[in-house]
Amino acid sequence: MEKPSVRLRASFDAARAITREHARTFFFASHALSEELRNDAYAVYACCRSIDDAVDRAAARGETVRPEVAGEILVRAFEAGGDLSGEEWMPAFRDTVVRKKIRRRWFEDLALGVAGDAGPVDLQTWEELDLYCYRVAGTVGLMMMRVFGSEDPAAEPRALDLGRGMQLTNILRDIWEDARSGRIYLPKMEREQYGVRKEDLLAGRPSGHWAEFMQFQVERAREQYRSAEPGIGMLPAGGARMSVWLMRELYAGILDPLEASGYDVFSKRHSLSMGQKLLRGLGIWWKKRKA
Question: Are 39 and 15 spatial neighbours (Cβ–Cβ below 8 Å)?
């Protein structure tokens, strides 16, 4: 492969810095990749992050947030528009999406999901939550499939499963943080089945059959991770496959301390320490090193 120009290398460096600052688990797992794949993954992440930031800025200004707010970034990214200050990652992104054949529609769907986060959220059904998970996480799974060198349509449902599992994990970890911002993602129909009241979530306290409700949600997330596993085996052997195994292991691992706390999501935000990440990383490397 031809070496990138000085400008392109600087652009990939800018994307790397964004990823390192905002996506620590992903950045940790990315070290299983070759340098070229890492750079491409960082470029894609930088665009996704910039879409998210554009929506946040518009919301902070009190504007009605529409997907077009983020879409302006995609016009510049896919139509070679003039880059703005803070978009030093853009040349790297353009280079990556052309080489890896990543579809613009996935980024447009992501923008729809992110724009939907700007106002109050109170999802009613599993179907609404599933669509949200596709838009903000499944799309990223499809993008990363291409980054890692897979164009196999049979692997796409499994990439969506992994994205769904990771987003459900985020939602469960951030229930209280999201509720304080007026966002409730766990479906109303399911909350009502277990007697979980919206006003109690907004007040930061459990209600109804909280443990049973959360156990159901955690098990659903774990089922997504299990369903995703055959798709990981469809990725090219080596760093790409190992990196996705690491992501699967580290995100699924967040569910363990959440469960061990008795589903206390109101007094702390559950996560894995660096030591725990290293131990899990070594464990998955040992089990999957010959895969």
Answer: yes
Which run of H or E residues covers position 242? helix 239-253
User: Residue 2: how many CB atoms within 10 A of its CB?
Assistant: 4
Residues 107-111 have a mean pLDDT of 90
Alpha helices in 79-209 (DSSP H): 90-100, 104-116, 126-133, 139-147, 156-173, 175-180, 188-193, 198-203
For 60-89, how does the pLDDT look when each residue is reduced to its tens digit (9 = 90+)? 776 665 656 667 788 888 886 666 778 899
Asked if 272 and 254 count as a contact pair (C-beta separation under 8 A), the reply is yes
To 10 degrees, the CA torsion angle through 49, 52, 57, 58?
Answer: 150
Contacts 24+ apart (CB under 8 A), 274-279: 277/25, 277/28, 277/250, 277/253
Q: Which two tokens stand for residue 218?
A: 């955690």
Distances (CA, A) of 198 to 174, 185, 258, 265, 273: 15, 11, 21, 15, 31
Q: Write down the domain spans for the chain.
A: 1-119, 120-291
Q: What is the pLDDT of residues 212-233, one digit of tens each?
A: 999 999 999 999 999 999 999 9
The 3-state DSSP composition of the chain as helix, strand, coil percent (nearest 5) reads: 70, 0, 25
CA 25, distance to chain mean position in Å, is: 10
Classify residue 37 by its DSSP letter.
H
- For residue 100, give both structure tokens: 């890896």
120-291 homologous superfamily: Farnesyl Diphosphate Synthase (1.10.600.10)
Residue in the block written with tokens 């959440």? 258
